[in-house]
Amino acid sequence: MVMNKQLTRSALLQWLSVLVILLGLISFALVIGEADLSLWQGILAMFGHGDAVSVFLVQELRLPRIIAALLSGAALATAGCLLQTLARNRLATPNIIGLDNGATAFAVASIVAVPISLAAPVLALTGAATAAALAFGLSAGAGARGYRFIVMGIGVGAVFGALTNFMLARTDMDSANSAFPWTVGSLNGRPEQAIYWLAYALVLGLPAALYLARSLNSMRLSEAIAIGLGTAVKRTRWLTLMVTVLLTGFSIALVGPVGIIALAAPEAARNLSAAHRVPVLLSAVIGSGLMLLADLVGQHGFSPIEVPVGLITAIVGGPYLLWILLRKTQPRTL
């Protein structure tokens, strides 16, 4: 009983710490820029009060970017948490198994071939689904730890990456410039419609992920144990892939490929949460914070130039991935 109370108190403290950090990042992003505001000015401007310049800066420039960062970070982190748990491998994230590249290739195709505002989100979703189907289909009979799934996903991602480069090389300069944010990952000037699409996807995907977490938890040791516990393994697997594709596709349609979020946020959430749970919600919150932090570094860390958020996460992501591969600690069960 005492131990349960200690665990509850520890979990509450961890949640409060994460939320305080996230609120601090949001406040910083709201008031810092070419024209700095006080926190009170920023809060008033959010609700349309204050001088016209402050209202414009907050409502038209900063707030949409903050919302885009929070939504995309949460979506990618949730997708990463689901995939890692399903494959029982920390490397099984949307960017590594090719979903990012599939969504990016189809989104770029929508720009260079079908210049319609609705096309990018729909085709990005289609691209993520195609990549997932190929990786999963080619890895039939994968081993218990899902390594074949990852290897096949890397191959699928390489094919889609080459297809993206081919399309950019063959198109005109204007179309290539328009497609650039979808190839590196950027939160600058994101279309409002894509933000709404991702918000709707999260409204559907996050509750679904929380629902699937219990079934995935029973599958972490082995599928045989999960079946013995009454888990519908095949249905859970397909539903997990569908939710992952939904969140990844619309996130890529908004910000482009930003891979490290799906890799790092679930890992951080597992280190903070109880070992026997799938930390879907905590992963989403941490993912939001990481995306916003990376965007802030890109905006203000290399002044006077702005570095796309995808490049910031790539700079950090390479060493982080090597650290995961090379660290000598004993692997623990997802």
TrEMBL record:
InterPro entries: ABC_BtuC-like (IPR037294), ABC_transptr_permease_BtuC (IPR000522)
One Gene Ontology term from the biological process aspect of the record: siderophore-iron import into cell
Membrane-spanning segments: 12-33, 39-59, 66-87, 107-137, 149-168, 194-213, 238-265, 309-326
Keyword Transcription regulation applies: no
Pfam families: FecCD
Keyword annotations from UniProtKB, A to Z: Cell membrane, Membrane, Transmembrane, Transmembrane helix, Transport
Gene Ontology cellular component terms for the protein in this record: plasma membrane
GO molecular function, one term: transmembrane transporter activity
Highest taxon listed in the record's lineage: Bacteria
Family label: Belongs to the binding-protein-dependent transport system permease family. FecCD subfamily.
Entry protein name: ABC transporter permease
Organism in which the protein naturally occurs: Thiopseudomonas alkaliphila
Highest classification ranks of the organism: Bacteria, Pseudomonadati, Pseudomonadota, Gammaproteobacteria, Pseudomonadales
